[in-house]
Structure formats: C-alpha cells, structure tokens
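Hi, here's the filled form for the chain we discussed.

Project: internal
Contact: R.S.
Residues: 204
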Amino acid sequence: MGEKNPRWRLPGEILLRPLSVYETLKTCSIFSSLSYLLALGLTTSILSGLLAALVGVDYQNPSNCGGSAQILAHWFTYTWVGETDLIRSISLFIVVNEIGYLLLALMSAPLLAAASFLFVKEAQTELLRSAMSAVCYGMTPGLVLGWVPNPFFIFGVLALGYQALALWKMMGLSAAKSVLVCVVWLVVFGVLQDLAVFIFDFVY
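And the returned structure, exactly as it came back:
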C-alpha cells in the first residue's frame, strides 16, 4: 500500500478513484484503518471547531455538517457543557469530534461485519477487519470536506456512497448487497442513536 498510495496522497486518491484504491486497502489492519480515520479526521475536527467558535456555524444542524460526530461535538461543547471560552470551546470541540469518529467506527464496523456475514462466508475476524477498513476509508469525503456548511447533508450522503463502494471492493459483496448492507447498517445505527438520545434526555 505504501508504494502505490503514499499516506499523504491517499485521501485524494480515494476521492478521485475509489474503486481501484480500495482494492489496495483490503488487507489493512484495524489499527491502520483507525489511525487513518483519526489523523485525517483532524481536518474536519479543527476546521469545524474554528468555524463553530469564530463564525457561529451550528453543526447541530445536519445541513451544516458531514456526520454525527460533529453533531455530537457541537451539542456537547455548546449545549451540554455550555462552554464560552474561545480556546477551551475550540479544543473541546476538536477532542469530542475525534472521540465521535472513534465511537462511530467501533460501533459501525461490528454491525457491518454482522450484516455482511449473511452474504459472505468468511472468518469473522477477517470480516471485522474489512468492515473497519470500509468504514474508515469510506468516510474520506466527510473527513476531508465535512467542515463545509452545506445543504442536504451532502458530504454525509457522499461518505455513505463511498462506504458502499468500499464494502463492494473490500468484502466481496455485490453492488446490490453492498447497498443493502449499508441501508441495514444505517437503520440499526439510527435506531441505536435515537435510543441513546432518548435515554440520555430521560435520565437528565
């Protein structure tokens, strides 16, 4: 992977030609996938934190963000904690956004692996590794561009499409099954997310 796709070029290569690049990422370790996610995610974490604090962009509004990590970061920083200090609010936003990315990957990969197990008879550890790669590398559009305020949650939707392509190329699923697995994952993850919000609001 290193010779074909140097680390600094990898995000651009994925955005421009995802299918061929995903082929080279099939055997990436879980640690490598998570490292990519968190390192590249700093782009959106930092820029979102700055825009929220300096310009007042509301990332709790899905139209302004690339994913649920930013919604969590904005809510935690400005609604739950109510931080008003400029430096602390930016720093807290960045940290929580990165934690959000990590939680998203750690929750999503097992769900995707479990859904894919219905179609692919492969060792569960291999499925989990492939699913983690699909989640982390598939999130590239949101990691690079998620800080840009945009209508219709466009970068989140784009990331979902890239993740479907990653499932197709990395896990040996057909195009139709890749889309189906992504839909199942999205529904289950959405239900879990809504349940967590309900429980939190009920308790507090």
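Let me know if anything looks off before we file it.
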